[in-house]
Fold:
Amino acid sequence: MNIEQLKKEVIEYSKQIGIDKIGFTTADMFEELKQRLVTQQELGYQSGFEESDIEKRVNPIKLLPKASSIISIALAYPSKMKNAPRSTKEDRRGIFCRASWGKDYHDVLRDRLTKLEAFIKEKLPDAQMKSMVDTGELSDRAVAERAGIGWSGKNCSIITPEFGSYVYLGEMITNIPFPPDQPIENQCGSCTKCLDICPTGALVQGGQLDSTKCIAFLTQTKGFLPEQYRTKIGNRVYGCDTCQTICPINKGKDFHFHEEMEPDPEIAKPKLKPLLTISNRDFKEKFGHISGSWRGKKPLQRNAILALAHYKDTTALEDLVKVMHKDPRPVIRGTAAWAIGKIGDTTMEPELKKALANEKDDEAKQEIEKGLSFLAEKAGI
Structure:
């Protein structure tokens, strides 16, 4: 079969099934990426969520022995929420990052890739393919960059001329020798807005991220959040968009092409207090379909407590005291005690002292003591 013609047909079909951009590249080794990954590993900048075997991340032949090309796909997601609810003094709200609005993007992209695989199989029954989204071995960004989807921005996101960086990425390795597309020239220029605004300094330099400092990563951890980052989280319950929203290329970019990506405002901007005591069943029912739920409810509850401290929400004290005394998890009890201290109502001192007397966990005890020291400072003692 004529491969040039097949490529045209694949591109045409991709539009019919809701793929917003498609690009093709070779299955050659990602040499430059290999060096970057080795450096990241040496500097301790990795999050721990990525594939640890660098060879699998840079060599497609390790994943599909007869690999000849890679198809990269991008789907644009919304950057603005319709009918976004407002936070009130009585009902403060948190926020999920835009990449966690709507249905879990892993499922959305897998659906498109599965349809694309079936289409190619129909045309070429002997075709071999391996598709992946985000959690696969390959770097979605490196593939997308080489396939001409966009350039790799200083904010470590792929930036497309059409949709900015508000795109989900996925790819398919194939044994078909599709002609490759040309990469796009980097258009960041001398702009450093994303580097300058990063709340924790996680963007070390253009294109280099210390994942261990990145708020998007920190909101997904399960332990006590390092204290130096607690006041940086603001009202973020999951993820961070700061380096995207500041990007000049993203200005005015807001696309609502896919119904399943539309956010439910009550889920994307949830009330914080109800999150503290939500049951496992209710959590799964309400949040289970979004990508931000993949680590379970514990990190989101911890982040909700930190958000209430950020707001200095005195209306949440009763809920926080209940959590501090009764939650079975030391991280949640301790974070609640820290938040009570930060909110700064000195009448809470007896509750903290009572919690300290009953606490068995050493780390949680330290957090209660920090809470007490905040109140003592407030009282001028």
